[in-house]
């Protein structure tokens, strides 16, 4: 099934290392959910050619790199995170030649390319799992409990709902922390290690600049696979301490991968990175994934889950910066992705809050990830018909945990269940992008779209917002241009300044950022010259009026 390129020429190298000791330390990276970004062939599903054709838009937006979600050969039981062949492109998305051309085109534009790697599990259609003997060596099979083995080996629950075990025709059980079509690999087997290192080298040879490691905290399970002792379902983005997540043994895997990435980069004069999608219970545990000999970045889900309250935001920011500073790493900020309710909706359904939160994020030290469509202010689509949904959690009982659907910030508990999409409504953040026009599919492609787009998105398209200084798209463009131009932004020092209750004020070299988390205006002495604001700010007689739910950057 593995494909070969028709062009044997070497892949062009990525742009230079940029400022600082590593380009990733202050990079802004844009997540492309491939099936929902741009469709080139009219089948209603985004593809690699469509993404390549839209790369100039990302260059003009001002990002530094692109992260592509899985486009590998897959039965698509979980949107491509069930991989059957890690070296082949699924025909839904194109060919290996299309991947090669996308990487080359990105590099020509000065954009780096990060791809997903999925090491915790494969598809049940993977050749290893299809071979009964190999499967029992390279996946986690166990005998069941009960008189005839009719009960699961332990009490673990799947992230997507229901038991984390499925019984086979042979009578034994295999572990799947996600869907039954996604069996967990046995990382005690050295052949698994060797295969994933070979997969990485394959894509590095094609020119990619790094890997986002899916479920980077999940490959190692506690010895003996002990019961949890209660029936709580594992949370998609939570703070639970569990015997199958965030085990210390995963760090040996990441150290081996860091050696591979550094060795490969050193031999070719480029910097290639690893990015951990790791759900750790504390900021201190998360920081372990970005120690100097492990991965380069780790998504900060504590920040994503923080409520829109000044004290809570400051606490999360302080804890995150302290934890990563202790290991000499940058903090990696994120507000939305393909697994969570879009932050326009999550933060109380308020576009004003979403715009303010983004300016805050881009003012913080470190790197930041943007999820496609957030620059358009897209809301979560909460009224998709059941018959079009494809989130596996929707079909495995997860729907009952959030039957009201995703909506306001009040629906998310302290562990972020609703915010994390575990209720089975993740499709709502995956609706294809609107590019132009007044009617669906809004320029997404020459055909329809795999998920229906709302009828009122005509005003949210790229074309409608381009050139409108009040639009969210132009706010993002302006913020990214300033972030690139001002030396005080990106990686570097930050300190807090005094501010009224409900307001945050943080300083970067030459800049002060104020955030009013309250729903009404707040006055304070004007701290400088306004550079950019998420809402109109007025300065009169040396007094500034900060609009409610707003963020302003000031030159000082």
From TrEMBL:
InterPro entries: GH (IPR017853), GH13_cat_dom (IPR006047), O16G_dom_2 (IPR045857). Residues 31-426 form the Glycosyl hydrolase family 13 catalytic domain. GO terms for molecular function: hydrolase activity. Keywords: Hydrolase. It comes from the Bacteria. Residues 1-20, 396-415 are annotated as: Disordered. Gene3D superfamilies: Glycosidases, Oligo-1,6-glucosidase, Domain 2. The keyword Hydrolase applies. The keyword Methyltransferase does not apply. Belongs to the glycosyl hydrolase 13 family. This is Glycoside hydrolase family 13 protein. The lineage of its organism: Bacteria, Bacillati, Actinomycetota, Actinomycetes, Kitasatosporales.
């Amino acid at each position: 099934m593995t494909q070969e390129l028709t062009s044997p020429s070497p892949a062009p190298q990525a742009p230079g290392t940029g400022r600082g000791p590593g380009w990733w330390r202050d990079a802004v990276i844009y997540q492309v959910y491939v099936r929902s970004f741009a469709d080139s062939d009219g089948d209603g599903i985004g593809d690699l050619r469509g993404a390549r054709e839209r790369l100039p838009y990302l260059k003009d937006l001002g990002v530094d790199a692109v992260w592509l979600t899985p486009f590998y050969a897959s039965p698509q039981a979980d949107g491509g995170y069930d991989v059957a062949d890690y070296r082949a492109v699924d025909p839904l998305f194109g060919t290996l030649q299309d991947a090669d051309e996308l990487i080359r085109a990105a590099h020509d534009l000065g954009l780096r390319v990060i791809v997903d790697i999925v090491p915790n599990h494969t598809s049940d259609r993977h050749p290893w799992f299809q071979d009964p003997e190999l499967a029992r060596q390279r996946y986690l099979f166990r005998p069941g409990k009960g008189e005839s083995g009719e009960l699961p080996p332990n009490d673990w629950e799947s992230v997507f709902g229901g038991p984390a075990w499925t019984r086979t025709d042979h009578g034994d059980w295999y572990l799947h922390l996600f869907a039954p079509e996604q069996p967990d690999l046995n990382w005690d087997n050295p052949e698994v290690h060797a295969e994933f290192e070979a997969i990485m080298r394959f894509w590095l040879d094609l020119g990619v600049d790094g890997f986002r490691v899916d479920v980077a905290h999940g490959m190692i399970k506690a010895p003996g696979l002990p019961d949890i002792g209660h029936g709580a379902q594992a949370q998609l983005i939570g703070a639970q301490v569990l015997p199958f997540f965030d085990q210390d043994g995963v760090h040996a895997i990441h150290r081996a991968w860091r050696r591979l990435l550094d060795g490969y980069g050193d031999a070719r004069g480029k910097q290639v990175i690893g990015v951990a999608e790791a759900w750790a219970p504390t900021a201190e545990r998360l920081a372990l994934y970005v120690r100097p000999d492990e991965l380069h970045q780790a998504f900060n889900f504590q920040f994503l889950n923080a409520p829109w309250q000044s004290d809570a935001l400051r606490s999360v920011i302080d804890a995150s910066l302290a934890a990563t500073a202790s290991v000499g790493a940058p903090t990696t900020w994120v507000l939305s992705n393909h697994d969570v309710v879009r932050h326009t909706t999550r933060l109380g359904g308020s576009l004003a809050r979403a715009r303010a939160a983004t300016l805050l994020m881009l003012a913080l030290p470190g790197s930041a990830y943007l999820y496609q469509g957030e620059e358009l202010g897209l809301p979560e689509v909460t009224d998709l018909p059941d018959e079009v949904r494809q989130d596996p959690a929707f079909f495995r009982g997860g729907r009952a945990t959030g039957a009201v659907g995703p909506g306001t910030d009040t629906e998310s508990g302290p562990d972020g269940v609703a915010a994390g999409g575990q209720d089975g409504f993740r499709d709502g953040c995956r609706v294809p992008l609107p590019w132009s026009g007044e009617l669906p599919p809004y320029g997404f492609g020459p055909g329809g779209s795999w998920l229906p787009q709302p009828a009122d998105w005509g005003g949210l398209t790229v074309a409608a917002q381009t050139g409108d200084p009040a639009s969210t798209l132009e706010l993002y463009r302006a913020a990214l241009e300033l972030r690139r131009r001002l030396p005080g932004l990106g990686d570097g020092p930050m300190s807090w300044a005094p501010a009224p209750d409900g307001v945050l004020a943080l300083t970067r070299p030459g800049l002060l950022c104020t955030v009013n988390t309250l729903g009404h205006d707040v006055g304070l002495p004007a701290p400088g010259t306004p550079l950019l604001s998420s809402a109109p700010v007025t300065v009169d007689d040396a007094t500034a009026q900060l609009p409610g739910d707003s963020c302003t950057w000031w030159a000082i």
